[in-house]
């Protein structure tokens, strides 16, 4: 009986074995139509948790990223997980960094070359089991309304989730692209874009997302509202395996750790 | 027959770069190339709306250039004179 009470106390102390989950949070958008500055502050300030992955989807009228940094409390450089270039028309990047050790701030992207039309979408993925990390990516470029990437698989760790983040940059204004239809990933996320002048002088960025607890194989599939040159990226992030299986192992073997 | 190289995609902070060469005279894609300094393979493919596709895998830590079937996959030019991908999509994936 005493042994059972100890087991119950242990479970209460460390929590019942559970399923981790990834939560996506929209953090804001920005669009800029030209100007002399090469810098883009992608959102207002927010305070990421240590288990958050900070992600920015950046679409521009062709120029590459020189630097992507966290501006605020803490110092971090975002790593480019994947980028795709529809040459001369639109380029889309997905960059990310761990929120560990960072305080209130935002992502700032600095372009190479000229500061032309661009749009940036910021989000975070919070892992119930810990920090989601980059797993794989696929890209696609084309013209028309059917944006796509290659197909690939994300298999979650034990008791954990995969997050699918899709980003599509379109050489068009937001008004012409603000009603996309997302098939994969299956949720429409944030969107922003420039306006004014000829439609092809503008850039719109679109986000799709999906969280899965089982293995999934899929390609990005989104239908744009209007035909345009597009550049699409889809990236998967995986959180660590749940600690629940480890706890269960320990209890099944009858090992009791006394709390101090 | 001037050949021009375009970077199509990049992965893992530049560990993998996918490129295509094209003929500036007739806009035909002539070669696909993956420069892979990563520990994982990468994949590139060109897909026509009509259904044909051509792709190849580049092993880990390898550079690979492959001839694209002659005069089958083309860029086009839009009204502004920029390259465009009408009827064709270019995909890249890493790790493949």
Would you kindly provide a brief summary of this structure?
Chain A is mainly beta.
Report the end-to-end length of chain B measured between terminal Cα atoms. Answer: 33 Å
The main β sheet of chain B shows up as:
4 strands, antiparallel
CATH topology of chain B: Immunoglobulin-like
Shape of chain B: globular
The side-by-side strand order for the widest beta sheet of chain B comes to 1-2-3-6
Strand coverage percent of chain B: over 45%
Number of helices of chain A: 2
Biggest sheet of chain A, open or closed, and with what strands and sense? 6 strands, antiparallel
User: Helix-strand pattern of chain A, N to C?
Assistant: HEEEEEEEEEEEEEEEH
Please explain how this structure is put together:
The complex is a heterodimer of chains A (260) and B (96). By secondary structure, chain A is mainly beta. Chain A has two domains: 1-19 and 246-254; 21-238, no CATH class. In chain A, 8% of the residues lie in helices and 54% in strands. Chain A is built from two helices and 15 strands. Chain A has helices spanning 2-14, 244-252, and strands at residues 22-32, 39-41, 52-60, 65-72, 76-77, 79-86, 90-98, 105-111, 118-127, 133-154, 162-170, 181-184, 187-193, 204-212, 216-238. The radius of gyration of chain A is 21 Å and the shape is globular. The model of chain A is unreliable at 7-17 and 244-260 (pLDDT under 50). Chain B has 96 residues and is mainly β. Chain B has a single domain (3-93), classed as Immunoglobulin-like. Helices cover 0% and strands 56% of the residues of chain B. Chain B has no helices and nine strands. Chain B has strands spanning 3-11, 16-23, 29-36, 42-48, 53-58, 63-67, 76-77, 83-84, 88-94. In chain B, a hairpin with a 4-residue loop joins strand 1 and strand 2. The radius of gyration of chain B is 13 Å and the shape is globular. Chain B starts with a strand and ends with a strand. The mean pLDDT of chain B is 95. Classes of the chains: A mainly beta (260), B mainly beta (96). The interface between A and B is medium-sized, with 29 and 28 residues.
